[in-house]
Design goal:
The chain is an alpha/beta fold. It is built from nine helices and ten strands. The longest helix has 16 residues. About 45% of the residues are buried. The chain binds tricarbonodiimidic diamide.
């Protein structure tokens, strides 16, 4: 049955729980804990940790409502055949992708750093999708996963707002999905980039999608 989130911006967002997926982007130790990829790029990871309780609340509500749940992880195969040299060699990080760090090899699928944070572990039956790019559609089976399950609307959370979340949301929008980003369940290392991303997503009549707070969504989802 269709539900309407009247308080979404820039206008009401309609969705049917039976055709809606929650995609939680890259809530991995590599982005949220010291010694991982995010920190190696020079970022303070602590601000990202503030959203963990809200993402957990969203995840629990989505489970209770029976939404399809997908957790993504940005990571590469141990042989790094899916990591372009341009990505590995760019810039001057303290540790590069594939290097040995305090949580194992940086952004490599088998390492502790690539794991989902313990607070947001996937349950059996939930999809954990490894992706080599910033967008979750590139070089993954996400299109098939969503099509097989009849998904039409996607609710997004995770990190970072302007990199992997925004890239995936734009990819999804172009593929015909109605996308809602949960404002307080996403975070960036750069507060100004998060604010700009929320604004640009919903500008021009929801050119990329909608935004709402977790509490606003839960009012409708729990109803
Ligand atoms: N660096 C940064 O802000 N983000 C990433 O590299 N990946 C994700 O956003 N997951």
């Amino acid at each position: 049955m269709t539900r309407t989130l009247a308080s979404a911006q820039p206008f009401a967002f309609s969705f049917n729980p039976a055709t809606t997926a929650l995609i939680i982007i890259d809530m991995q130790r590599d982005f949220l804990e010291p010694g991982g990829f995010g920190a190696a790029l020079g970022n303070d990871v602590t601000p990202l940790r503030a959203i963990i309780p809200t993402v957990a609340q969203l995840l629990h509500a989505a489970r209770a409502a029976g939404l399809v749940i997908i957790h993504t992880r940005e990571c590469h195969r141990p042989d790094m055949s899916d990591c372009p040299a341009s990505k590995r060699l760019r810039g001057d990080p303290s540790l590069r992708i594939g290097d040995e760090g305090p949580m194992g090899r940086i952004l490599i699928a088998d390492s502790q750093g690539a794991a989902l944070i313990p607070e947001l572990m996937a349950l059996p039956g939930e999809i954990v999708l490894d992706k080599p790019g910033k967008g979750a559609f590139y070089a993954t089976s996400l299109t098939d996963i969503l099509t097989d399950r009849g998904i039409r609307q996607i609710i997004f959370a995770g990190v970072t707002t302007e990199v992997c979340v925004q890239t995936t949301m734009r990819e999804a929008n172009d593929r015909g999905y109605d996308c809602l980003l949960i404002e307080d369940a996403t975070e960036s290392y750069f507060p100004a980039f998060k604010a700009a991303t929320l604004e640009m997503i919903r500008a021009q009549g929801a050119i990329v999608g909608w935004t709402a707070s977790c509490a606003q969504l839960l009012e409708v989802l729990d109803a």
